[in-house]
């Protein structure tokens, strides 16, 4: 099989040091060669043409070749709720969950809705530059085996994914344990899948008892899997934990000896310094959702404090606004405004949050960077803009002045998923039609329309 040679306008590659701010290299008139799903060379276009004269050459000289973005926290089903009338929702984070999101969205999801949403999410992510994602299905009454059917959708789309269904006791302990078992079953089933794997998943300290958390931890250890949980998305959870447990959520979980580098905690909005110290001491993986945290009025996560302690958060969309450029911009800008300090979260850090740090957070440390020997998960972003790209400005130019529509190429494991903006693995019109029909069915089922 002949190598595929991508002749690029630029190559943007992250270095291996996860905490350095200065090792994101950019090279003009460079490209890369791919063979058997791996990158085998990154060098100048001239050198590539000399080294691989018989390879399949793709002219991408109008593009900046970048590592595929990593969506470190995603709810695919949430795409069906885009635009849903929410007039009946009560104010406050807990009021929104109790009066609207749980009874009129999560509890009503059935398999056709879930699969249509998963398919739409894959389409949106391919088009926007995501190549890997961590997806949490919040559907307590979903049928058994639904994760396997989601995995089939993801495999057909060609993306990489970590899939789970969220387990809790909010609909009863017995059902919660069934959901833990569903995750465990899928973790074992997907162990040989090259694109999709599973993880254990619980909700929060206000929907899970101590005994339930211990069951989830035991399952994750038994299957050698990561475990995901939402953590203090608003002030509601710390207040609840203080009232019930006498300590804030991070300290409660620490009391249960939950924390380890195999735990992925998402949101982390209402966490204090003492809690960050605990998370850093245990090397917990984290994911930051700057846009959805604003949407629910939760607040702004103390990401600068995480960085000071050596935590390296990934970036997630939460299923809300699924454009990685908008999410990177939010992470780049929102903390500057909150702290009135233009030096926090430089472009290099926001970029790593969306690439190499996000990959590590979801258990795919080999992804998120372009380097020889790494899987060929590559995107091509329009290089031509209103002002020139240079080695000194290429990251900020892409991060600040590009959007999902500027992604023209997507490749995962050497397989082209999109070329010149045309998705190759999914029928875009059919996917959108199915999702629109299922969204309307969900809205009607819950009495929202």
Structural write-up:
This protein has 449 residues and is an alpha/beta fold. It starts with a strand and ends with a helix. 39% of the residues lie in helices and 22% in strands. Helix 3 (111-128) crosses helix 16 (428-445). The protein has helices at 45-51, 93-104, 111-128, 146-157, 173-189, 210-223, 236-245, 249-255, 273-282, 290-295, 303-308, 324-339, 347-354, 356-361, 394-401, 428-445, and strands spanning 4-14, 24-28, 30-35, 38-44, 56-67, 69-74, 130-137, 160-165, 196-198, 200-201, 227-231, 263-267, 285-288, 314-315, 378-382, 407-412, 415-419, 422-423. Strands 1, 2, 3, 4, 5, 15, 16, 17 and 18 form a 9-stranded mixed sheet that branches. Strands 10-11-12-13-14 form a 5-stranded parallel sheet. Strands 6-7-8-9 form a 4-stranded parallel sheet. It is globular and about 65 Å long. A hairpin with a 2-residue loop joins strand 16 (407-412) and strand 17. The chain has 16 helices and 18 strands. It has a domain at 4-67 and 366-423: Urease, subunit C, domain 1, CATH 2.30.40.10.
